[in-house]
Design a protein that fits this description.
about 5% strand, mainly alpha, Neurolysin, domain 3, 2 domains, 3 strands
């Protein structure tokens, strides 16, 4: 049995390494690729995807799985975890034709460039054919995996195993009930955070400051790097984590908090067991858990008073002229400004979840056929006005703002909101265990929190799906009530 298990994991490692090369190609495509090289990159990624698919579909893998499953009773708990996920992945890969895998990978590469061009021109019509194709590919993939009657459930499960549209709808409905009145109260408050007063921050100094911040909270730059891209993202594994951000001299908080957000993802990847990246023991649970890590560091930590007690003097030292007329109270209020915006990635954490509800409801309609691609901009604009009170002036402000659909990542958006819920629930549990967390932050010490997350989340790998993991750590089922409580605790004293 030991020999079979070792053979299986050796094959998994080879496939994982090939996948990591493909990820690097994806990173390079958004960071370094010359503008007229897109067609070749699409072919490269197509070949890489096909090659990895062939490894994962190797009949010998199926034979090894069958023999191991026959004698599963003598395997250790960890070995059974590896076996469970290897079987799930093998069954998925063997149901997907190689030509489909090749086609989808090439389409994802082409889709990114089509989106970037359409976004720059604020012209949805350029993007619509790509989106039509991506939706068609997503439904075909669901059908191959026996989800033909529930394609959107399949897409959600791809990002957050164990979750369904029904589960997400229930959580979102409860969240919306408590969130909408809170948003109304805060946005109607006479108190206003003035992030618009932060102007003229040199980009090089912004980068120096955010690198200091991200290194201080724990990101290992010897095993990762930070670059610039059109849309911030994080990719790679613990030994090579690539993060990106973007800069605006008149919006320094955007690059800072985007970088802290991506650092949360990077810390998770760097915290996964390094010798197990090729098995479920060293892989992330799903995107909801991933987002819980990024959102916890971005919001609960980096918007706290303790965090800014430590970093505000350093921020002022880096930008003395830009901040000389801004008091500490006004700076903290600007950091926690609440103002509805059309752009999700610029949204404050109070209104952010409404952006996710908008996308979730639209995705459901796309998949059940009640919304056609051609009608997407109008539907988006109407939903934006209803949920946020704002109507986009053009497609760049509306339906073209996010990169996710360009490579068929439907079902991903709910992960952000699931992550916000989990982050708040983890936060309150951490405070129960260590009430002096804010004092730690004020001293520039983030070691306890990172160590706790390493043990409770990162180090567990994929042993538990999202819901069971939350319950294992906190003793409670995943609930939006912790997020509502957190938003009231953080923003009530500032605005109400």
């Amino acid at each position: 049995m030991g020999s079979d298990f070792e053979l299986l994991t050796a094959k998994l490692k080879r496939a994982q390494l090939l996948g990591s090369v493909s990820e690097l190609l994806g990173w390079d495509e958004q960071v370094n690729l010359p503008p007229d090289s897109a067609d070749q990159r699409a072919e490269q990624r197509s070949v890489m995807a096909e090659s990895q698919h062939a490894l994962l579909c190797d009949p010998e893998v199926g034979q090894l799985l069958a023999r191991l499953e026959k004698n599963a009773s003598i395997l250790s708990d960890d070995e059974r975890v590896v076996l469970h996920w290897a079987r799930r992945d093998y069954d998925r890969e063997t149901k997907l034709p190689a030509e489909f895998v090749r086609e989808k990978a090439a389409q994802g590469s082409r889709g990114y460039h089509a989106w970037a061009e359409a976004r720059a021109a604020a012209d949805f019509a350029r993007y619509a054919p790509v989106l039509e194709k991506n939706l068609e590919l997503a439904k075909r993939e669901a059908a191959y995996l026996n989800f033909g009657d529930r394609p959107y459930d399949y897409m959600i499960d791809r990002h957050d195993p164990g979750m369904t549209a029904s589960t997400v709808s229930r959580l979102f409905s409860e969240l919306r009930e408590g969130l909408v009145p809170l948003v109304r109260s805060i946005t109607q408050s006479a108190v206003k955070g003035r992030a618009d007063r932060l102007r003229g921050f040199p980009v090089k100094k912004q980068e120096a400051f955010l690198r200091e911040v991200t290194a201080r909270i724990g990101f290992d730059y010897r095993r990762g790097r930070l670059d610039v891209s059109l849309h911030p993202f994080c990719s790679g594994t613990g030994s090579d984590v690539r993060m990106t951000t973007r800069f605006d001299a008149d919006n320094p908080l955007d690059s800072l908090f985007s970088s802290i957000h991506e650092t949360g993802h990077g810390l998770y990847e760097q915290g996964l067991p390094r010798d197990q990246h090729h098995t479920a023991l060293g892989q992330s649970v799903g995107m909801g858990v991933h987002e819980s890590q990024s959102r916890l560091w971005e919001n609960q930590v980096a918007r706290s008073r303790g965090f800014w007690t430590f970093f505000a003097p350093k921020f002022r030292e880096q930008f003395p002229e830009q901040l000389k007329e801004i008091s500490s109270a006004d700076l903290y209020l600007a950091i926690n400004a609440v103002e509805p915006t059309l752009i999700r990635v610029d949204a404050d954490e109070v209104t952010y979840n409404l952006h996710i509800v908008l996308r979730f409801e639209i995705e459901q309609k796309l998949f059940d056929g009640t919304l056609a691609i051609r009608d997407l901009p109008a539907a988006w604009n109407t939903a934006s006005e209803a949920l946020l009170g704002l109507r986009p002036k053009n497609d760049r402000e509306g339906v073209l703002q996010d990169v996710h659909w360009s490579d068929g990542a439907f079902g991903y958006f709910p992960s952000y909101c699931i992550g916000n819920m989990m982050a708040a629930q983890l936060w309150y549990h951490a405070l129960e265990l260590r009430p002096q967390l804010e004092e730690d932050f004020a001293a520039g010490d983030f070691n306890w929190l990172l160590g706790w997350l390493r043990t409770e989340v990162h180090g567990r790998g994929k042993r538990f799906e999202t819901g069971p993991l939350v319950e294992k750590i906190t003793g409670q089922a995943l609930s939006p009530q912790y997020l509502i409580r957190y938003l009231k605790d953080r923003y009530g004293p500032l605005y109400l």
